[in-house]
Amino acid sequence: MKKYFSQTTFLAIIACLLWSSAFVGVKIGLKYHSPLQFAGIRFMLSGLMLLPVIHDFGKFREEVSKNFAYVCLIAFLQVILQYSLFYMGVNLVPASISAMIVGSSPLFVALVAHFSISGDRMDWYKTASIALGIIGVAVITLGRKSIPSGAEIALLGVLFLLLNNLASGITNVVVARKKQSISPMVLTSASLFLGGAFLTIVSIPFEGLPKQTFPTEYYLALAWLSFLSAAAISIWNTLLRRPKVKVSELNIWKFLIPVSGAILSWLILPNESPDLISILGMVLIASSLLSLNLIKRKKKTSEEGLTTDLV
After folding, report:
1. Cα-flanking dihedrals φ and ψ of residue 116, to 5°?
2. Total domain count for the chain?
3. Which of 80-84, 115-119, 142-146, 306-310 has the lowest mean pLDDT?
4. What are the tens digits of pLDDT across the range 87-104?
5. Which structural domain, as residue segments, surrounds residue 226?
6. Which of 95, 137, 113 is nearest to 256 (CA)?
7. Alpha-carbon span 245 to 178, nearest angstrom
């Protein structure tokens, strides 16, 4: 069991590290391509990238046909709805505020799980870990950017970002509660492709078709973004389907994303460098993750000891 949870933790960290690298790729891609169309092509390629890994196309077609309504639901929630809400929110809200709101997504996931999954309730140690992580995200975000005045904050944009977090929580719970009639890899491939195809088609009347040729850095960014989406979402959907994994506790690892994103920006961007406030925020996030896992391990050890005594 210890090995099982160690593997789960390792894979969750890998997925979050992959997601944290998306910001640089998106920034490069949007220099040359319109947002909805760029996202649509990215997610379509992500879905196609998983087909060689699945191998058995007959199995893929059979599972998708039997669960087509469910696949469409995940495509809508995970790709179409979340991306649209995220983009509209980021366009209306200053970067520092939007980063802080999106960074609080583990709280929304935990709340949705609390009210919809009987074995995944909020308790004091989980609440404390989430609160500490959110404080860490706020310190990193507000420490690296200027704080805007209240007049600059669009309430509609804040609402979009909060709804994005809520959609993320609902998606995680829906994936976790699904019976094993469709494999996580097939679900990820089909939902990413369908969601990407929808975004691409919808983008054409609003954004038109690209008329310029793209440089090498655009294709490199597109390839990396497509790969990380395929890999990270496949890992995450697989972990959500594991019977012993709690949705709320798994999503707390997403606090690693702003930490890794800040480190990558220090390494890649010439005008970014470490500062005391950002390091303090990282310490707070690390404390939230360590405290959660130490308490979980202690609780598990005491439960195993109680079981041994009863036997």
Report:
1. -125, -15
2. 1
3. 306-310
4. 777 767 665 566 667 777
5. 20-93+154-241
6. 137
7. 14
